[in-house]
Amino acid sequence: MSNTDDGIEETNNEHSFDRVKQTLKERSKKVVETKEKTKKIISEHAERIAKQAEEHERFINKVTYLCGVLGFGGFCFILGARPQDVPLVYCLFYVTFVPLRWIYYRYKKWHYYLLDFCYYANTISLVTLLLYPTNEKLFMVCFAFAEGPLAWAIIVWRCSLVFNSIDKITSVLIHLLPGLVFFTIRWWNPTTFADMHPEGTVRRVSWPYVENKSYLWTWLVFVPLIVYTLWQILYFLIVDVLRRQRFLRDPEVMTSYRELSKKAQKANNIWWRFSSLLGDHNRLFMYIAFQALFTVATMALTVPLFLSYHLHVIFQVLKVSAAVWNGGSFVLEVMPRQVIQKEKKKTEMRPLEAPLDDSPPLQQASVS
Fold first, then answer.
1. pTM, whole model, 2 decimals?
2. Could you say which of 17, 19, 66, 180 is the most buried, measured as most Cβ atoms within 10 Å of its Cβ?
3. Residue 211: phi, psi to the nearest 5?
4. φ, ψ at 13 (rounded to 5°)
5. What's the pLDDT at 193?
């Protein structure tokens, strides 16, 4: 009897295990189906919004241009009237526009751009301003990021201040605002001076005040480079190891390296030829090496900016001038070509769309 009972118990255990296994399979299948349905709904809504945006493109561009000019003018007013509020404006901008950019880039398959160093540096700056605003060492690390790679990217990568493009305005501000924020904190912020002014001592000209040059180089160059190296390792692991198959399956998914490679190959410029010195299979490592050299050089240039108020002011003017100049070049040279291409596509599509209309030609003419 005991053997029979044991056999029945084992059979029941097997059946219960099979039921649990089947239930888990059904639940996982439902989760996958729900996920696919959600993706489909989101993509349908995104396509509908994109079509509506195309239909009202001119009006949207006018509204965007108006808001862009008013917003930039308002920021300039705050910069002169209340420089101590500039960090708050920057934090509000970042927590608002970066999530919106992720949604838009996710639809366009550009969301891996948000793993770039500029977003990494901006996130560290945001955490520093909100949680550790009086930490001098973190301030210097963020200063090196903001006035080093981020600032020089405006000039090197030709970021364009185009007021009728939210995407381009956001790109410019992501690279421009951090430097302006740390400029105001270092030289113009009366609140910082009041908080950092020790009682019984002469008021400091700037904050933080550093006399030891080795300390200066440590926290403006060497420590930021360690933080940068950590980002580079994480970026390589995510993009080139963990998500490698995703990129191989879908060539439309873009990263910074893919975009730069396509542009360089198309132009067949010196960077494309130079990156092939170690062979085509090592172009990625050459790109990493170029970016590392760029980062080291630009971070080293932050030392004189940190020490000289006048030099720092000139650099702010240079950054804004470069963004405006690039924006003018885009509006006068690139946008006319884009308009011509769009009109050409519309004229090519009209003969294809005409047969789809069931109304007679005379009726169409009378309706129009």
1. 0.77
2. 180
3. -105, -30
4. -65, -40
5. 61
